[in-house]
Amino acid sequence: KENFEIFLKLIKQDASEKTRWLYFPRQENEVLKDKTYEFENRNFLKNFVEELLAYEDQVNHHAKIYITHQEVTIEVYTKKLNAVTELDYDYAKTADLIHQDVGYYS
Fold first, then answer.
1. Distance set, CA 8 to CA 19, 45, 56, 70, 92 (Å)
2. Which of the two residues, 22 and 85, has the higher pLDDT score?
3. Are 68 and 38 in contact (CB under 8 A)?
4. Which of 29, 21, 33 is nearest to 3 (CA)?
5. How far apart are CA 15 and CA 22, in angstroms?
6. CA-CA distance, 94 to 1, in Å (whole number)?
7. How far apart are CA 19 and CA 29, in angstroms?
């Protein structure tokens, strides 16, 4: 499968972003993985997670979300198909947009 040779990076326009979405194959499934978002404080982190969970419920598509102190890491793929789908790419883009937006919350 050609997809097994492709690395796709969904890079935010913000050049200071340390981490990127990486697309890579695994033997069992394909995953958009290892996107870690950092936050200045826990309030921004909480707002991000709340917005992300609301989005998940709205589209009925859920990711693995790992929270550590002031970081959130997300891993997403379509479990029923055991592959990366448009839903996953939409999820990744939406997570990036939510991350940008919570920086403007007061």
1. 13, 26, 23, 26, 12
2. 85
3. no
4. 29
5. 16
6. 28
7. 22
The dihedral built from the CA positions of residue 74, 77, 78 and 79, taken in this order, carries a sign that is: negative
Residues whose CB falls within 8 Å of the CB of residue 18, separated by 6 or more in sequence, listed in order: 36, 38
User: Please, are residues 35 and 73 in contact by the beta-carbon 8 Å criterion?
Assistant: yes
Encoding tokens for residue 26?
């695994």
pTM reported for the whole predicted model: 0.71
- DSSP for residue 83: B
pLDDT in tens, 31-66: 566 689 999 999 999 999 999 999 999 999 999 999
pLDDT band at 22 (very low <50, low <70, confident <90, very high): low
Name the one residue in this structure whose structure tokens are 């007061």: 106
Residues in the chain: 106
Read off the tokens for 22. Answer: 């990486």
